[in-house]
Amino acid sequence: MLLSEATNAGGNFSLVPLVVFFPLIGLLLNIIFGGRLGEKAIGWLASLASGLAFGVAVLLGISLIGSHGAGVTVPFLDWITIGSLHLQWAFRVDTLSVTMMLVVGGVGTLIHIYAIGYMHEDVRHNGDPGRYRRFFVFFNLFIAAMMVLVSADNYLMLFVGWEGVGLCSYLLIGFWYDKGKDGIGNAIAGKKAFITNRIGDFGFLVASFLMFKFFQPLAEGGVFSFDFDSVAAIAPKVASPVILAITLFMLLGVAGKSAQLPLFVWLPDAMAGPTPVSALIHAATMVTAGVYLVARSFAIYSLVPAAQNWVAIVGGVTALFAATIAVAQFDIKKVLAYSTISQLGFMVAAVGMGAFVAGMFHLVTHAFFKALLFLSAGSVIQGMEHGHHAVEHDPLLRRKMKQNERLGSTHHFDPQDMRNMGGLRHRMKTTYWVYLAGALALAGIVPWAGFWSKDEILAEALHLNPAVYWLLTIAAFFTAFYMGRQVIMVFFGEPRSEPAAQAHENPPIMTVPLVILALLSTFGGFLNLPFIHTFTHWIEYTIHPAAEAAEAGAEAAAHAGPWYMWGGLNLIVAGLSTLLALIAIALAWMIYTRRVEALKSLPAARRPDDPLRSMLGPVFTGMEHKWWVDELYEFLIIKPYVAISRFLAEVIDWKFWHDFFHDTIIAGGYRGLAWIFANPIDLGVIDGIANGLAEGVRGLAAQARRIQTGFVRNYALSVFVGVVLIISYLVFQLR
Amino acid sequence: MVPVMYYVILSAILFIIGALGVLIRRNAIVVFMSIELMLNAANLAFVAFARQYAATSGQLFVFFVMTVAAAEVAVGLALIVAIFKTKASINVDQINTLKG
Amino acid sequence: MTVQLILFFILAIVAVLTAVGMLVSKNAVYAALYLILNFAAVAVFYLLLNAPFLAVAQVTVYAGAIMVLFLFVIMLLGAEKLGQSQVQAWQRPLAIGLGLILAAEMVYILVSGAGGLVVASQGTTINPDFGSPANVGMELFTKYLLPFEVTSVLLLVAIVGAIVMTRVEKK
Amino acid sequence: MSLSDLVLNLKVILPIAVLVLWACALLIIDLFIPAQRKGLTALLAALGLAVVLGLAVAQAGRQESAFNDMVVVDGFSTFLNVLFAASGLAGIALAYDYLKRTGMERGEYYTLLMFSISGMMLMAQATDLIVMFLALELLSIPLYVLSGFARPRADSEEAALKYFLLGSFSGAFVVFGIALVFGATGSTALATVLEVARNGAANLTLLVIGAGLVVVGLGFKVAAVPFHMWTPDVYQGAPSAVTAFMSVGAKAGGFAALLRIFMVAVPSTSAHLWLVFEILAILTMLLGNLVAIAQTNIKRMLAYSSIAHAGYILMALVTYGLPTTAPIGVAAALFYLVAYAVTSFGAWAVVIALEKAEGKGLELDDYAGLGRKYPLLALAMAVFMLSFTGVPPTLGFMGKFYLFGAAIHGGFVGLALFGVVTSLISAYFYLRVIVIMYMREGDPEVSADPWLKFTAIAAAVLTVLLSLAAGPLFNLAARATLFLN
Amino acid sequence: MNFVIYPLTLTTFFPLLGVLIILFLKAEHKNAIRWVALLTSLVTFGISIAVLAQFDTANPDLQLVARAPWFQIANWTVHFYMAVDGLSILLVMLTTFLTPISILSTWTAVEDRVKEFMIFFLLLEVGMLGVFVAQDLFLFYVFWEFTLVPMYFLIGIWGGQRRMYAAIKFFLYTMAGSILMLLAILWLGIYQGTFTVPDLIAKGGIPDAVQMVLFIAFAAAFAIKVPMWPLHSWLPDAHVEAPTAGSVILAGVLLKMGTYGFLRFNLPLFPEAAVKAAPWMALLATIGIIYGAAVSYAQKDVKKLVAYSSVSHLGFVMLGLFALNPQGIAGGILQMVNHGLSTGALFLIVGMIYERRHTRDMNAFGGLWKIMPIYGVLTLIVTLSSMGLPGLNGFVGEFTILLGAFGSEHISPWFAGISAAGVIMAAVYMLYMFQKLFLGPVDKEENQALKDLNWREIVTLIPLLVFIFWIGLYPKPFFTLMAPSVDKLVTIIQAAAAGLP
CB within 8 A of E362, min separation 6: which ones? Predict the structure, then answer.
């Protein structure tokens, strides 16, 4: 079915390809004409492209409301058709995909706009304004790829977007490919992200192979197309071990993309990218693709509780594990990165348990507040850079800064290190307030968005998987603690460095998107208020069967449950988590204001950079060093791989196959044989031996020279030997 | 009546002695004479077989072989003389510049 | 044992001994003389085998003309004796060994395998004309005309060749 | 024999007769040609050969015997006669300037060459062992002399002596072998031998031993291992033009005799002798190709190469006892001989072009840079090397295809395997020539002789074109085996 | 006989016209020679498009048949028999497509002996096209061996430092394989009574044991050419030493001759043996994939890295072919094209930088993206294509291959599973290469002043990129071309497999 036919399907559904094409057109225009446009024009063009995609998503959403949530598939083009395999480029419009489109388009557009301002500074700060256009080209490409991912009608098209966003992630992490550790650190970080993701993709691929092998024979007409509907329809007929294998391999993919254990290691490094990248790709959208995938595959996950359990455990453990690490980070973005991993753990745990709606809900709210946090962090960083710039150009301040004990040289000043910040709430007011909103949302304080979504997850967890519930609850406590720590370290107290003291607020092009996001973070939770459950109903149009199974209990409890159930809200869970969050914030306040004050009495050299360090000792070191996971992988995987490939290449392939086997065995044997035939045998090995016997020991070299006979009698002997041999053979034969 | 095979055996022995002459002797002329002995031995076999079959063709073959031998001797001795002029030797063991 | 047989054995011994004499004599002239003796013995065999024409030719052409030529060249070049040299000394025992093996094989195979011929030869009656010069000549110029003509060409070639090989170039 | 009979008989050997008479006449004419203008003799000889070639071609399709079944004219002989005559022409073309250049220009060269060719042609036509033996000598004796033609160059004389002594030595084996065959059947006529053997009246022991000894003698002529040892020395020592001619003519002559004797007269010995041929073939292919690798002198390398090619042709003889395969084998051998002849003459033409009067220019290293300085000549040489290797589209490949096919048809897959493996080995040293010509820098000198260049380029063109339009040649070769019926 | 103007014969032999013209040009007129060569190859490409236009995609059998008895040896008739079907049409197109691109890439890279270079190059094109259209085993073998000669010269004369070694090794290795095939061809021709492929397939009935021997004999030739592990040792030498255009053609087309050989001959001629050998071939293919990828990663020379990557990529092709099902085989064919495009482009890219810097050591570069942005972007796309990024051509091929291999009845799914890890490893070495060349700071003085690509170089790469995207996004036309023939082939194999115990 082509586009024109799809139009007849009704509504605006036929517009869905535009969500992909608008960003693509945007990036093509920027590639072709960008050279002649100014920075502003480039940025706005890209933002417009993203905005238009968002607009289409809104139209689609309206159409969905009009069709009472009934989704449609909009085929676009045949892709791969071989025998029983039939793959299409086809778009899926249902509440789940449109939700994602709205998030991607909406948050994406805001971040685009923010980036217009941010990148203007960034490219100058990094000394290569030429890359401004490239940034927006990549950004639009990302939106396009992400749109492919969320609007796909089948697993393979989803995979195209899946790897496409991975590519954009790679490109944008390594955007400043000549910066970072040793000048190559950023590029390596990008590579790490891509390769780690590829490991996940390997799982995805194997899952799809399994799917084809076992689903295809059961497919209608024997032709399998990987589309979600037919997978859902066939899955119950397939043996459950197969489904288990498929879901677990898919989990590997999820772990890769959504930075879960054991593949989370790339995400912190991904912070090497410019901050809008971290916000858009590594917080709001791309990393949630794994969650989306599990939600998409609800039909098959629902069939195998074991797999669900695994997913939930992975999510829960990751949530806690990452949260502990976030506590001990000093880089403002690293904290947020680990926080993202932790929050993704919440979502994965949710969708794993079967609480698909809760997971998706948290995905949406998280997109709001984590994008906000990253962008405001970017705002802080840029503020710090402004401050640093001011310091650099003011000799007086520079001298002052030189005296600062911990910052030996101004050149190695790190504008992202929270230890250099402090007191910014006075100098960057807007940023402070929006940051606070984001932090509260993340910490899960009523009534900010995070509270509602996180609480829904916790409530479901208590009901579905108590173990995970406790993991998540503790993680939530840590969350509140590290956010408190971060806010205090950045915005409260006295400036701990000269640049911090000189920092100033950014222009409106950056702050306006922040404010919008802050509003979303604050009120986003109202999408799914108790009793109303707008979001739940919206999503349940799509995830209907699973929702029935998983949420029936919750629904029932909402109406006829015990006293603590209030319109679907578990008051005990909500109360406990809120209480814990408040305690954590209070604890953070105690430590990072009181304790810091107390430590000031110590001499500078012995004063710890973080009060927790002295309180927790080695535990803190462990958390600070991310529990040495990177080192472990380096030792277990990377080093062996490099060693093996070196060994294979240099020893096996080159020394053995190439040199030894070819040059020595084949070529050498060949030459040796030729020499033997040419010299001793042809010209008298007998001569050499006999001479040796007759004349005693003589130099081999002399022998070799002498056996070059040329004697006619030897030749005659050769003939005669031939005669004797032939006659002997014949005599033997005739006997 | 002597059995023909006696002659053939004798001829074989003479032939082999001739061949040994080629293999053992170093004087080119003697080598050449040994070849003549070989031809001669073959001739003997021929004549013996001719007698056996009462076929004149055997004897004629011998006649032709003799002619060939004469021709060879003419060329061969000329060659040996020529070589002797160049190398002042007819020792076949000293004629070995071509080798390898 | 018939007279013919006795004669055969005596002559055979002579033939073999002269052949061996040729093989071992240090002096090329002796070797040539041994060979002449050998040829003479063979000529007698030819007579015994009803080949008088060949016997005559053997004596005149072979023992006479050819061997004289040999002797002549030996004398001309003064090549009766070669200096002693150890070169290729190993070849002698090897060659003799091989020769003995071959001889043993030939004798064995001729005696065992070709035995039928021996018996068949007993009763064969021979045309008295067989092998006579007239008979041979008749065959030569009728049936064997072509080979005969070829030998003439061959001899011509030999002459040309000999001239080419020995002619002194006029510079 | 009446005069008309004689005329009728002579018609069968007309090319030979004309050739011999012309050679005799030329001997005399040559006396009147001044020493500086011996080129005239060459031209006259070439003229004669051209006429002979024409006569040989004119004999195509005839099938009759003459001189009391001593000789025959049939497809086989015609095919080979044409080959021999053409080889003679090529031999003269190669010698024409070379002799002048090396100061050995004498009229006898051409007459001896012609006598040798007449021996070869007689070999192809002979159907009686007596004639065959005489043909062998007629073929050989001029070659002995020609090998020493560069007298008083020691190399040349040494080559001649070695060739002569060993040739006579192995000739004696042929004589003894023929004697035994005669003893077994009571006849020297091939047809009679066949008939007697077929009737079971022959003494098999004598026949087999005799045939074995004939193999030795003819194996020497074709340079089969272990009777090959003269080849490198003689090829190196003899004047290059002679070597070129010898490498084709003597080999083809030897094979003509081998093929005719074994296919026509003594197929009954195949049960005993096929293995001998197989082993000879294997040894020859193996040793020829292996030792060639170690050579640095192009003439020696080509000598070993010619040994190797004899091995390939010997593959055809292995099939001689199989009634259905033998014709294929013969045809394949004939085809291969043509392929080998064309390629070989071409290669030798290049070698001669590079050879200097003092015998320099024969090392492989002297070929460095030929590709840049004389692209046409180098290209031709490359074609010959590839043809020797057996890479399509060249005659060499077609020949090998045919031969291996014959071997497989006869069920000798292992032998064919040896054939291809040794071809691979041979690639190594043939390619080295190309490497040196094209990939090394050097400054070779070439004597600008139009006839040489013509021969080389014509041979190269033939090597490629004939392989692409090989149909007629295949047909001719196939028809040349009619005598077997 | 209108063979000369017959589409396939015309395509195959048209480059000879260019050879003839060049022969009569003076060696000094280098540009004229280049133009003649380029135009000839472009016209050949044009003719091949005409062939494509006449190609009936619904027909599974051989099409555009040009057939006539060529000559007869004994009673074995050899045919001049050219035809295409879905298995070969893409490869014909690939050949005619890559040749002009390669010629264009030599414009400034080859200055020495241009005349000979172009002659050999056009001759090579004749040989390659002949291989893909010949349907008579003899004719096929002639073309097959003939391709060795020009390639040998291309490597040997215009190659790098160790060119002689590489050239001889290339020649000997490939010849070593093909001589066994020659025997097998002879056997088939003699005992099956025909050399033409369709007749042989129709005749069938080769005893199992013999079939296996013949299979191995053919496989020896093709496996070396592919090259399958462990017969790959000639490849790095040949690639590293060959001039850029030679590498492009070597990787782009010549290696495909091996995989094509399996497809055209081994599978349909010896289906029973193919089914039996499939696990072993798949094993070698899998080892090749992993091994090639691992070894690539440890290279310092870019060209060597790309060369080893070919071992890995062609492992995928072999795995697909020996999945013996439609997905695997179709994917395999497409992957042949993909590899031709991607690796061809990579060699062009390596050649471009080599022309500027005269080194291929990856350590000598770094940060080139900044200096040569266009070059960087084009390289990135090609790199991504090569590592199988979805949406680009490589993915379509690799995915369908793995899907086919995983679902195959004849080989274990483990092969596909392990091979899928090769996809990860491809990312590792490809990104490593990209990083070494293009990312990081520009810390080498010599790289500061490098010029970005000129128009000619961009023009050589753009056509490849178009196809990289086209195949990645809309491969349907390509699959449509091959589908009926692939189905037919699979039917043959299925029938054979059904007959096996």
Answer: E299, E300, E301, E302, E305, E433, E436, E437
Fold of B4-87: Helix Hairpins (1.10.287)
Residues in chain C: 171
Q: d(Cα D332, Cα D325) in Å, to the nearest integer?
A: 10
Q: Which chains touch A (3 or more CB pairs under 8 A)?
A: B, C, D, E
Residue D425 forms contact with A (CB below 8 Å): yes
pTM score of the predicted model = 0.89
Residue keyed to tokens 């406790």: A470
Considering Cα of D12, then D15, then D19, then D25, what sign does the dihedral take? positive
Angle at A645 between CA A642 and CA A651, to 5 degrees: 125
What are the domain boundaries of chain B? 4-87
Please identify which residue in the block is written with the tokens 């072009």: D353
CB contacts of A170 in chain E (<8 Å) are: 431
User: How far, in Å, CA of D390 to CA of D400, rounded?
Assistant: 7
Element spanning D293, H or E: helix D270-293
CA distance B80 to B74: 10
pLDDT truncated to tens, each residue of chain D (485 aa)? 677 888 888 889 999 999 999 999 999 998 888 888 888 899 999 999 999 999 999 988 888 888 888 999 988 999 999 999 999 999 999 998 888 888 888 888 999 999 999 999 999 999 999 999 999 999 999 999 999 988 878 888 889 999 999 999 999 999 999 999 998 888 899 989 988 888 888 888 889 999 999 999 999 999 998 888 889 889 988 999 999 999 999 999 999 999 999 988 888 888 889 999 999 999 999 888 877 877 788 998 899 899 999 999 999 999 888 888 888 899 999 999 999 999 999 999 999 988 887 777 888 888 888 888 888 899 999 999 999 999 888 999 999 999 999 999 999 989 999 998 888 888 888 888 888 888 888 888 888 788 888 899 999 999 999 888 888 888 888 888 766 54
Check if E406 contacts A (Cβ < 8 Å): yes
Cβ within 8 Å of C, D 194-223: 203-206, 209
- In the numeric block, which tokens belong to residue A256? 């890769």
Is the CB of A678 less than 8 angstroms away from the CB of D173?
no
Q: Does C83 touch chain D (CB under 8 A)?
A: no
Q: Write the ipTM.
A: 0.90
| A299 Cβ contact list (under 8 Å, min separation 6) | A228, A231, A232, A235, A545, A546
Question: What DSSP letter does each residue of C75-103 carry, written as one string?
Answer: HHHT-S------TTTTHHHHHHHHHHHHH
Q: The tokens 């003519």 sit on which residue?
A: D249
Half-sphere exposure of A670 (CA within 13 A, CB side): 19
Calpha distance D84→E308 (Å, rounded): 53
Collapsed DSSP state (helix, strand, coil) of residue A153: coil
Q: What angle do CA E29, E35, E38 make, to 5 degrees?
A: 140
What are A570's two structure tokens? 């578990």
In angstroms, the CA D246 to CA D240 distance is 9
Alpha carbon distance D239, A639 (integer Å):
68
| Rg, Å, chain D Cα set | 21
Shortest Cα distance, chain D CAs vs residue B48, angstroms: 8
Q: How many residues does chain B have?
A: 100
- Give the residue on B whose Cα is nearest the Cα of C105: B12
Indicate the domain borders of chain E: 288-496
Nearest to A479 by CA among A441, A447, A449, A446: A441
User: What are chain E's partners, defined as 3 or more CB pairs within 8 angstroms?
Assistant: A, D
Tell me which amino acid residue A229 is. Answer: D
Question: Residues D281, D415: contact at Cβ < 8 Å?
Answer: yes
Strands E63-73 and E76-84: antiparallel
